[in-house]
Design a protein that fits this description.
By secondary structure, the chain is an alpha+beta fold. It folds into 3 domains: about 90 residues, Uridine Diphospho-n-acetylenolpyruvylglucosamine Reductase, domain 2; about 110 residues, Uridine Diphospho-n-acetylenolpyruvylglucosamine Reductase, domain 3; about 210 residues, Vanillyl-alcohol Oxidase, Chain A, domain 3. The protein is about 30% helix and about 25% strand. It has 15 helices and 19 strands. A hairpin with a 5-residue loop joins strand 8 and strand 9. The chain starts with 6 loop residues before the first helix and ends in a 16-residue tail after the last helix. The mean pLDDT is about 95. It binds flavin-adenine dinucleotide. The site of flavin-adenine dinucleotide (FAD) has 36 residues, from strand 3, helix 5 and strand 10.
Length: about 450
């Protein structure tokens, strides 16, 4: 039952709440309700900007007492906009962004509202790193809880593979620690089960030595080279060492300084290379880099922090996007024909197709060791429609759906963090029926009333 959020009801909360409380009447409301995806325009009833674990407990209790849905915002990068909802309480963790790194144990403790740049910078200052996302302003929380893919994953595993523990507040307000020894079943579930089980206020990661200089950058070929590049890429991936993680991206070359003027805005395929060991990586990519002359090639030694920030300018906050994804078993001839055919239909602008190379350390962790679904997939395809002008929205969305439909025969589920909202039947494919049933039981134990429902939602069941 929903009650009216009167000034008195909100005022009562104010007396004990340490963080910010933003109502629709406040001048900061429109800024506070924004998330990364500029296509999402939703109006929560109240925004609670938590400054402590006690605030998180109070925020959950407040929403429940007033019969309001809860949307949890870490870094605000949910593509379908799970972190904001009309009429809900948005529990915003962004103020909880402290990061501490112990150089002796090489462990990082990271609060639930931090973004990756706030981890990467201090970690690199000590010569350390953990697999983060491809973009530095993405939230640590959402990315980690869904699994976490990134430039370092074939060497260091998914982000969850380096997670040692979490502290989280459950639907009933309890503060729990989950790790291999404390609440191990809950620890299993949060490593891939998303925000279904509670609000994580602290993560603990095991970092690894890296850099500061690694191999990074990209080489770019015009579309007529696409099919041959794909076939070479397929062979390259079969023997690729763990020290190298790559992406094959179809895009219009951006008007950035490193792109020759006559190539800017032209469509083509970019091979993005990240190598944790410069010598091994240079050797590994030698043949594919030179199979035919690229339009430009900027692969070379560069600081890890520069590699991490490489895509930031292409995907700034407020980007308007529609996104769908597939896990892919292999780059079959049929897949290559479909993807290159649909690429040719991509609208002008910043839309993109990402083929993400998985494998390496990711695939060596057993499928049931964590809740993450699909880690054994060799690739993912990300179908990314981006537009500026609202008039172009329909064109981009239609193109994404057409691309996604064409690739569906080659796919098996989709990574929960990089797809649109999956229904129960899709989640069963992504996680596998057995794992989904285990997640449902744990959901029933920790959140029987589905208080945390704005996510890739696992329905509670005994
Ligand atoms: P939010 O929108 O804040 O939250 C997303 C979900 O996580 C919501 O369901 C929310 O309820 C839940 N959540 C957030 N914080 C908490 C918390 N503290 N406790 C419990 N639940 C919480 N993914 C990758 O794996 N690798 C990438 O390289 C990558 N790149 C991306 C680049 C961009 C530009 C974008 C927009 C997304 C990218 N993603 C990537 C996807 C990303 O991992 C997900 O969108 C993720 O959910 C973002 O986390 P967030 O905290 O920023 O999101």
């Amino acid at each position: 039952m929903s009650t009216q959020l009167t000034p008195t009801v909100v005022g009562d909360l104010r007396s004990s709440f340490q963080g910010g409380i933003v109502t629709p009447k406040d001048p900061s409301y429109d800024e506070a309700r924004k998330i990364w995806n500029g296509d999402i325009d939703r109006r929560p009833a109240l925004i609670l900007q938590c400054a402590s674990v006690a605030d998180v407990q109070a925020a959950i209790a407040f929403a429940r007492q007033n019969g309001l849905r809860i949307a949890v915002k870490g870094g605000g990068h949910s593509l379908p906009g799970h972190s904001v909802a009309d009429g809900a309480v948005m529990i915003d963790l962004r103020r909880l962004n402290k990061v501490d790194i112990d150089p002796t144990t090489k462990r990082a403790t990271v609060q639930g509202g931090a973004v990756w740049s706030e981890v990467d910078g201090p970690a690199q200052a000590l010569g350390l790193a953990v697999t983060g996302g491809h973009i530095t302003h993405t939230g640590v929380a959402g990315l980690t809880l869904g699994g976490g893919i990134g430039h370092l994953m074939r060497k260091f595993g998914l982000t969850v593979d380096r997670l040692l523990s979490v502290q989280l507040v459950t639907a009933d307000g309890a503060v729990l620690r989950a790790s291999a020894s404390d609440n191990p079943e809950l620890f299993w579930a949060v490593r891939g089960g998303g925000g279904n089980f509670g609000i994580v206020t602290q993560f603990e990661f095991q970092l690894a030595p890296l850099g500061p200089t690694i191999l990074g950058g990209l080489a770019f070929w015009l579309p007529d080279q696409g099919p041959e590049l794909f076939r070479r890429y397929r062979e390259f991936c079969k023997t690729c060492p763990d020290e190298v993680t790559t992406l094959l991206v179809y895009l219009h070359a951006p008007p950035f300084d490193f792109v020759p003027k006559d190539v800017q805005h032209k469509p083509g395929f970019a091979l993005v290379v990240v190598g944790t060991d410069i010598g091994i990586a240079e050797q590994a990519v030698k043949a594919i880099r030179s199979f035919s002359k690229p339009a430009f090639d900027i692969i070379g030694p560069m600081p890890y922090l520069a590699v991490q920030g490489m895509f930031d300018p292409a995907l700034p906050p407020s980007t308007k996007t529609y996104f769908k994804a597939h896990y892919i078993g292999e780059l079959s001839d049929g897949y290559i024909r479909a993807v290159t055919r649909e690429a040719a239909k991509m609208p002008p602008g910043m839309s993109q197709i990402f083929v993400v190379q998985m494998g390496g350390a990711v695939a060596r962790v057993a499928e049931d060791a964590t809740a993450v679904g699909g880690r054994a997939s060799a690739f993912q395809t990300l179908c990314i429609g981006i537009w500026d002008d609202a008039a172009d929205r329909e064109k981009s969305v239609t193109w994404v759906r057409g691309l996604w439909d064409s690739l569906a025969p080659f796919s098996h589920g989709a990574y929960v963090n990089l797809s649109d909202t999956q229904d129960e039947s899709q989640l069963k494919v992504t996680y596998g029926a057995e794992k989904y049933a285990r997640l449902q039981k744990l959901k029933c134990k920790y959140d029987p009333e589905n208080v945390f429902s704005l996510n890739q939602n696992i329905l509670p069941a005994k």
